[in-house]
Amino acid sequence: MLNFLRYVLATILGLFIFFFLGLLIMVGVIAASASKGDITVAENSVLELKLDKAIVEREQENPFGDLSFGFFSMSSGDGLDQIKASIRRAKTDDNVKGIFLNMRFVDAGMGKLEEIRDELIDFKESGKFIVSYGDMTNEKAYYLSSVADKIYLNPLGTLEFNGISSEVFFFKGTLEKLDIKPEIFKVGDFKSAVEPFFLDKMSEANREQMTSFLNSINDYQLRKIAEARGKTYEELKKVSDEVLVREAADAKTHGLATDIGYYDEAIDYMKEQLGVEKDKKLQLVSLAKYKKVKDAEKSGSAKNRIAVIYAEGDIVDGEGDDDQIGSTRYAEAIRNARMDKNVKAVVLRINSPGGSALASDVMWREIQETRKVKPVIASMSDVAASGGYYMAMGCDTIVAHPNTITGSIGVFGIVPNFEGFFKNKLGITVDRVSTGNHSDLPTVTRAMTPFEKEIVQREINKIYEVFTQKAADGRGMSQDELKKFASGRVWSGIEAKERNLVDVHGGLEKAIEIAAARVGIEDDYRIKELPRRKNFFEEMLGEAGSQVKERAVKAELGQLYPVYNMYKKVENMQGIQTRMPYELIIQ
């Protein structure tokens, strides 16, 4: 009887899964078919940019994107590639007369902000307008809004304009409470990635570097805002330092906003610009819809390709996930670009704080082999530090934004000792049998001997020497000279260029332009994006469970999610690391 019930339940479950998957595929096909249809944009339309999702380098196609079912909302965010392409398309679209920046909080790194802002500035050259409206606007959102012709701020709204900051979490007290003793191995006074495990506050060296590059980025952005708003740097620095914008009216008084008004007043202004009567609806087209507008036919020879290899996330050994830079997958992508006769040059787009030293070196090798037959240009996004810099340093030219975070040329390793935690907190003891005095090295269940510590530190020192020598060779300087800028110190793009760690300031388009010029195909090429991304169904069927779990954890932990995320990153670390501080969040 029990076996019969098992078979019945198994059959019912199988039918349910079959029905669910069938429905899923059917809806997906319908959604995908609909998305392939031509999207029409009405005359006198305005492109509305809310940018209320996290902005990633590349956007994954999602046929369920327009559906309201929460289960299907698996997109990791808006793609920078699609945002820029939409602004560029709107510039020449006769039906789009302007852009409406309807933003509150923008979740993007400084490099991505710079590229979007540059596209908005270029859009204005068409003679079309940009209008911004905000009720609660953070510094990042305002950095974009500052280029607008009209900036509306809600009468009871707030504008954050008090400089940028970054917080670092320290876990020394937690580890002590848990009786966990980390053994720290590093090279360089500035290798602050390990500080959270043995300090309860920043070292003076770390405070020095963070103060330096944050001020560099802040000063750069203040100057850009001052230029856009017709103010001086000194005026805006005073406004920021003294927090003179405390109410909406203050923003207008100090020239940061043009109008204090409500959402409908911003809409009425745009209607007036377009000759639309007040009682008529303004045609706002969302970014989600406008991304689907069919582009003009691609020009350029299909036999002239520039491969853009997007490398975003932590650097790990092996294949890695879609949000990681797996050395095996990316080495293969670089190799494929090298072997493809139609690919004339390679642009390596890097957005990474680093990770595995071994994985970084594996990819560095493929870059060197590729350089022998075709140019390789590095394009740094928000961050290309430590292992991220390791990838870039061997390229022919390094392009970075003035506010890119880079450098962090240093190495570290952590071997935690859980012996006290297991014994004193969990009542677990460990015994062992070994064929030699150090057969269990490395181990996390006992303290390391001085001899064993020396072995690990020597390995750290060796990798640091390799790292700095290869960086020096790539940058055309002596190792001793490069070491002056190494020791794990982090630099802004401005500081890095002054120290010959990068060559040119600019974004992805600048890097592609340099690559095309190197091989003489300035106006006759197409872009090939690598590595191939999983399509929506591959992603959903392969990782739907993990994404559902991730969303649930995020919802449950709320503001504590970043701490959990840091723990997951530490859990994934294997071997010696070339990595900058874990979570450098600038706000």
UniProtKB/TrEMBL annotation:
Transmembrane segments: 7-31
Boundaries of every Peptidase S49 domain copy: 124-276, 370-520
Highest taxon above the source species: Bacteria
Localization (cell): Membrane
Pfam hit, one: Peptidase_S49
Keyword Disulfide bond: no
NCBIfam families per UniProt: SppA_67K, SppA_dom
Family the UniProt entry places it in: Belongs to the peptidase S49 family.
Name this polypeptide is given: Signal peptide peptidase SppA
Organism of this sequence: Pontibacter amylolyticus
